[in-house]
Write a structure and sequence with these properties.
PQQ_b-propeller_rpt, mainly beta, 8-stranded mixed sheet
């Protein structure tokens, strides 16, 4: 119907209408002229909102009828209905097509047919008039998740904390996606509907009911041994066997963590293992005793002069030829103290020695030897004593490269902190940040002392204080930096979790996944020693529960190699 010059021209036949709220009056021009007023046309849906309730994915609800009324004195020549913002609602039938006379109604039928789990909402919108209603639609879809297999000792937990299964179970899930995780922390093997997800999870897209199986689960560590004291050193003896050195003595464990033998000591400083599986043990007085892999004494060496070796760190290493290198601090730190490097043959005979003196008081920072014995590296720091205050005044830190006969090839200064050496002569130093969240600055130099990289971890991400760091002691393993330590709780000196991680190689600082260690008593933990045990890169970790000032007990754990590479 259109209007021209005040006339209502009824040039179209009346459409077939389902309902009418006004009598159809053919009373001539005056009434028709009223239909051409300036009032806006309006289309109204009989409900402002509707909730279809809960339905399983893949099914559909019953049809719901919505009535659209033309509540204006004008005809609407082109009316239409649509659903916006969701594909979970479907118009199954509609009489709201094109023309709708004033005061008349049409009908639309809608179903809820969700393709995915979760809450769904949409708008049923009617268009064609200057004023048109919309209706808010909503519904909830769920899908069944069947966990058909859970290994003994493991559990399956939903990532949204909605459920946990320790045996086969079934749960309704009202989400489009869900990630399942296996626990306790470890390495799961999933099957059936699983897609790979971070941290070893099983990702499910809930476009229907899903079935999943946890076929296998491996814990982070394969065994644990508790001790009264945290290890000072852990080292591989080959064939999965390890040797542990702590303040009480030396112990050998087999590949399952069972004790093979133990020798008590109370005055030992350092331990090193030769490539043929012999154990050299350095005592605080400078005596070196070597044992075979079964704990029997092979030889003993006593230095001609007493040692102040209790002030030294990283002062005992071995080469592939079976030689043992010892770095001793001799003299008194109250007067004069020098470093003495001596080399013992595989039979315990001194081959050569050299004194290193870069200042009045010298302390060791590290000792390294190329795997084939071609060169030896000594790190140290030199001080002088102030005549008036008697305080130690820093002079320099240095690294010296020597030939197998003890001849110095070069000495380089500005070494930051303690130094660890690879079997190719490269050197790594780490300086820890003690303030939460921790982290560190590290430097990696080549065999000639040239910087390959200097870098630091993120100041806001930790992972914590560094208590120990090592490099592989097997020439078959690529040199990588392995760090461990503890967290410090903000605003306190209280220990949080212990931690360890692979931190990269000679190419760059590249922190890998962090493995955290919680105390079973909730009193903090730390990592005091680390070592690779075999070519499979199993990692033996030693540490303590509590804190250094308030020790509860020590521990030794053998970790799965995947702890260094897989996000959890």
């Amino acid at each position: 119907m259109t209007c021209h010059d005040g006339w209502a021209l009824a040039r179209s036949p009346l459409p077939m209408l389902r309902k009418s709220l006004f009598p159809v009056l053919l009373l001539g021009a005056p009434l028709l002229f009223g239909a051409c007023s300036d009032e806006p046309s309006a289309l109204i849906i009989d409900r402002k909102s509707f909730d279809f309730g809960e339905w399983e994915v893949g099914t559909s609800s019953a049809e719901q009828l919505f009535t659209v009324r033309n509540a204006s004195p004008h005809d609407v020549e082109s009316v239409s209905v649509s659903i916006e913002d969701s594909d979970s609602f479907v118009i199954s039938s509609s009489t709201c097509e094109k023309y709708l006379a004033a005061g008349m109604e049409c009908e639309v039928r809608v179903k809820f047919a969700p393709p995915l789990g979760g809450m769904a909402s949409a708008r049923l919108r009617v268009a064609g008039a200057s004023s048109a209603n919309q209706t808010e639609l909503q519904g909830t879809a769920f899908a069944w998740v069947d966990v058909t297999s859970v290994p003994p000792g493991a559990r399956v937990a939903a990532g949204d904390d909605s459920f946990t299964c320790i045996q086969p179970c079934r749960h309704a899930v009202r989400k489009a996606e869900l990630t399942l995780y296996a626990g306790p922390e470890g390495f799961p093997t999933w099957s059936k509907a699983c897609a790979e997800a971070p941290r070893g999870g099983c990702l499910l897209r809930l476009d229907g009911s899903k079935s999943v199986a946890l076929d296998a689960w491996s814990p982070l560590y394969q065994w644990e041994v508790r001790r009264s004291s945290p290890p000072l050193t852990v080292a591989s003896l080959g064939n999965g066997q390890i040797v542990v050195h702590d303040t009480l003595g030396m112990t050998s464990l087999d590949s399952t963590g069972k004790e093979r033998w133990s020798l008590p000591f109370t005055s030992t400083a350092e331990l090193a293992v030769t490539y043929d599986g012999f154990i050299s043990l350095l005592h605080y007085d400078g005596t070196v005793t070597q044992y075979d892999s079964d704990g029997r004494v092979r030889w003993m060496y006593r230095p001609p002069e007493p040692s102040s070796a209790r002030y030294a760190r990283r002062q005992l290493v071995a080469d592939v030829l079976g030689n043992t290198y010892v770095l001793l601090a001799q003299g008194s730190r109250d007067t004069t103290m020098v470093l003495k490097l001596l080399v013992l043959s595989r039979e315990g005979v001194e081959k050569w020695s050299v004194v290193i003196n870069e200042g009045q008081i010298n302390y060791p920072l590290g000792l390294g030897v190329m795997g084939d014995g071609r060169y030896v590296y000594v790190g140290g720091t030199a001080y002088r004593r102030d005549v008036t205050s008697q305080d130690l005044v820093f002079v320099k830190s240095f690294v010296r490269k020597l030939t197998p006969a003890g001849v110095a090839l070069w000495t380089k200064e500005d070494i930051q902190g303690d130094v660890a050496f690879t079997l190719s002569g490269e050197m790594v130093s780490v300086i820890s940040n003690p303030s939460p969240p921790g982290g560190f600055v590290a430097s990696w130099k080549d065999a000639e002392g040239n910087v390959l990289w200097d870098a630091q971890t993120s100041s806001s991400r930790g992972p914590g204080v560094v208590d120990t760091y090592v490099l592989p002691s097997d020439a078959s393993l690529a040199a990588r930096l392995l760090c461990g330590g503890h967290e410090t709780l903000p605003g306190t000196d209280t220990y949080g979790r212990g931690w360890f991680a692979d931190m990269g190689d000679r190419s760059k600082l590249a922190p890998g996944p962090i493995t955290y260690i919680d105390s079973p008593n909730g009193n903090g933990a730390w990592v005091s020693s680390l070592a690779y045990t075999d070519l499979g890169r199993h990692v033996v970790v030693g540490g303590g529960f509590g804190s250094r000032a308030n020790l509860a007990e020590g521990f030794i754990r053998l970790y799965d190699p995947r702890t260094l590479t897989m996000e959890r």
